[in-house]
Amino acid sequence: MAEQRKKMTLPMLFKKVADGKPITWLTCYDYPTAYLQEQAGVDMILVGDSLGMTMLGFDSTLPVPMDDMIRHTAAVRRGAPTAWVIGDLPYMSYQPSVESAIRNAGRFMAETGCDSIKIEGGAEMADRIYGITKAGIPAMGHLGLTPQSVSSLGGFKLQGKGAVQAKKIIDDAKALEEAGAFCILLELVPDRVCQLITERANNCIIMSLGSGPHAHGQLLIYHDAFALYPKFKPRMAKVFADAGKVIREGLESYVKEVSDKTFPQPENWFGMTDEEYNELKKML
Ligand code: KIV
């Protein structure tokens, strides 16, 4: 049972890789969902700044501040005490300088109890990965479609389709690994590029989001995998259960039963003894 499982550690994650067992990873933003993911035995949880889109209804991840990330990551930690929890450094919390990166990574660790942090970007961010890792914080990278750069990437689309761009992603992955990244997420790159990076990784876990089966494990955005995001359905995301439909049908039943007075029933309320009731009436 997930409830009894040991706290996930870096050596345990690397052992899974060595044993050829794929790592399971989902995004999560709140306590009850974290509790369910923990029960299901999910290995890693990303509290992504995608919460700006999935939870707050923005069109991008850019408006999410550090304080929101801290609040949601702390809630996830409470719901999932043994999963490996990753806090996602939000837009402009690490880009300005190595120092800003270390400070905000430290805030994540101290204020939320998460296990590691993630930043987006390639070789130009290697000094941030190095600095954070040297400060004793496990750091991971994110290449391919990096949502914080959606404007310069030309939208939410496949990256590294051509050989030149693919070579840059492969070089970036090596730079991040050499800087100390324990893990790199490849989002929306061709499967063959993901395979090349995975084969070349020495001491770094390579994870795929829409980048094929050859990585050491898979990530999905929780709201995509459970049909909870109304704005669009990415092709890469399989819907494992239509929770959106189940909840919508439940809501329709609620509206109907309150409207036609079939809810509440006696088992849904609490009574009062005749004695106390009569006493109360006398007092009025
Ligand atoms: O914020 C997030 O959830 C992410 C994923 C898109 C990988 O960074």
Largest sheet: 8 strands, parallel, barrel
CATH class of the largest domain: Alpha Beta
What gap, in angstroms, lies between the N and C termini?
55 Å
* Ligands, deduplicated: 3-methyl-2-oxobutanoic acid
Q: How many E strands?
A: 8
Individual helix count = 12
- Which value, in Å, is the CA radius of gyration? 23 Å
User: How do the helices and strands follow one another from N- to C-terminus?
Assistant: HEHEHHEHEHEHHEHEEHHH
Helix content bin: 40-55%
What form results from the Cα inertia axes?
elongated
Query: Given the helix and strand composition, which structural class is it?
Result: alpha/beta
If you consult CATH, what is the topology of the largest domain? TIM Barrel
Mean pLDDT: 97
Overall number of structural domains:
2
Walkthrough of the structure:
This protein is α/β, with parallel strands linked by helices and 284 residues long. It has helices spanning 10-18, 31-40, 51-54, 66-79, 98-112, 126-134, 150-153, 163-179, 191-200, 222-225, 243-259, 274-283; strands at residues 23-27, 44-47, 84-88, 116-118, 139-144, 183-187, 205-209, 217-220. The chain has two domains: 2-241, TIM Barrel; 246-283, no CATH class. The chain contains twelve helices and eight strands. β3, α5 (98-112) and β4 form a beta-alpha-beta unit. α2 crosses α4 (66-79) and α6 (126-134) packs parallel to α8 (163-179). The termini are far apart. 3-methyl-2-oxobutanoic acid binds at residues 27, 46, 48-50, 61, 88, 142, 147, 185, 187, 209, 221.
